[in-house]
């Protein structure tokens, strides 16, 4: 085995793992956004997406991402506090 | 990401240092992924409770406070579940 080959293989694997993880995270976020915002903004589906539904939906997407960040920050705080107690 | 890749098959191709570096990286990624998944579950639940109307693209102060309270109260309840069930066994 060569040190260069090993390094290259390691870096390739890390990149793949990182990408797969990011893709999975994005997919979960997109599914949750669609589920929540469709429920909130398209209560009675018509023959096309109305202007109001359109506006509501995009605002909801932004709101959901903001909510994700808020919950994430609260969770990180919680985890840090719990670790401090141990 | 659910199945941990089997690094033993890479034994012959990786140096010991690279292998342990990769293992550490894998553990970190797995841990981060678990936290992200927990964040998804909590955001989904708390968004339903805290965001009632979509009138703007940003969270107002009440919604923001509700979201972090939602997470903290969920953890209180988690503790309470165990405590309460244990009190039944006594």
From TrEMBL, chain A:
Tim10-like domain mapped to chain residues: 16-76
Compartment(s) where it occurs, according to its Swiss-Prot or TrEMBL record: Mitochondrion inner membrane
A single GO BP: protein insertion into mitochondrial inner membrane
Keyword Translocase included in the entry's annotation: no
Entries under InterPro entries matching the protein: Tim10-like, Tim10-like_dom_sf
Top-level taxonomic group: Eukaryota
Any one Gene Ontology cellular component term annotated for this protein: mitochondrial inner membrane
Single GO MF descriptor: metal ion binding
Membrane topology classification: Peripheral membrane protein
Keyword Transmembrane: no
Primary subcellular site in the record, as a coarse category: mitochondrion
Keywords: Chaperone, Disulfide bond, Membrane, Metal-binding, Mitochondrion, Mitochondrion inner membrane, Protein transport, Translocation, Transport, Zinc
Protein family according to the UniProt entry: Belongs to the small Tim family.
Its job: Mitochondrial intermembrane chaperone that participates in the import and insertion of some multi-pass transmembrane proteins into the mitochondrial inner membrane. Also required for the transfer of beta-barrel precursors from the TOM complex to the sorting and assembly machinery (SAM complex) of the outer membrane. Acts as a chaperone-like protein that protects the hydrophobic precursors from aggregation and guide them through the mitochondrial intermembrane space.
The protein's assembly and partners: Heterohexamer; composed of 3 copies of TIM8 and 3 copies of TIM13, named soluble 70 kDa complex. Associates with the TIM22 complex, whose core is composed of TIM22 and TIM54. Interacts with the transmembrane regions of multi-pass transmembrane proteins in transit.
Domain notes: The twin CX3C motif contains 4 conserved Cys residues that form 2 disulfide bonds in the mitochondrial intermembrane space.
Name of the protein in its database record: Mitochondrial import inner membrane translocase subunit
Organism: Zalerion maritima
From TrEMBL, chain B:
Entry GO terms, CC: mitochondrial inner membrane
SUPFAM superfamilies membership: Tim10-like
Main location: mitochondrion
Pfam assignment, any one: zf-Tim10_DDP
Keywords: Chaperone, Disulfide bond, Membrane, Mitochondrion, Mitochondrion inner membrane, Protein transport, Translocation, Transport
Cited Gene3D superfamilies: Mitochondrial import inner membrane translocase subunit tim13 like domains
Bilayer topology annotation: Peripheral membrane protein
Any GO BP: protein transport
Domain of life of the organism encoding this protein: Eukaryota
Subcellular location, record wording: Mitochondrion inner membrane
Domain Tim10-like: 25-87
Annotated domain remarks: The twin CX3C motif contains 4 conserved Cys residues that form 2 disulfide bonds in the mitochondrial intermembrane space.
Complex formation: Heterohexamer.
Function, in words: Mitochondrial intermembrane chaperone that participates in the import and insertion of some multi-pass transmembrane proteins into the mitochondrial inner membrane. Also required for the transfer of beta-barrel precursors from the TOM complex to the sorting and assembly machinery (SAM complex) of the outer membrane. Acts as a chaperone-like protein that protects the hydrophobic precursors from aggregation and guide them through the mitochondrial intermembrane space.
Similarity comment text for this entry: Belongs to the small Tim family.
Protein name as annotated: Mitochondrial import inner membrane translocase subunit
Phylogenetic classification of the source organism: Eukaryota, Fungi, Dikarya, Ascomycota, Pezizomycotina
């Amino acid at each position: 085995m060569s040190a260069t080959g090993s390094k290259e293989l390691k870096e390739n694997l890390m990149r793949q793992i990182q990408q797969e993880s990011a893709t999975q995270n994005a997919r979960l976020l997109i599914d949750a956004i669609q589920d929540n915002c469709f429920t909130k903004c398209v209560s009675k589906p018509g023959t096309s997406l109305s202007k109001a539904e359109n506006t509501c939906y995009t605002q909801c997407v932004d709101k959901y991402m903001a909510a994700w960040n808020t919950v994430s920050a609260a969770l990180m705080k919680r985890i840090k506090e719990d670790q401090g107690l141990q | 990401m659910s199945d941990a890749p089997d690094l033993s098959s890479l034994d012959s191709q990786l140096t010991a240092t690279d292998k342990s570096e990769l293992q550490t990286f894998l553990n970190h990624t797995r841990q981060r992924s678990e936290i992200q998944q927990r964040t998804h579950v909590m955001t989904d639940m708390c968004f339903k409770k805290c965001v009632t109307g979509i009138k703007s693209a940003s969270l107002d102060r009440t919604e923001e406070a509700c979201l972090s309270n939602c997470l903290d109260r969920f953890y209180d309840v988690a503790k309470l579940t165990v405590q309460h069930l244990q009190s039944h066994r006594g």
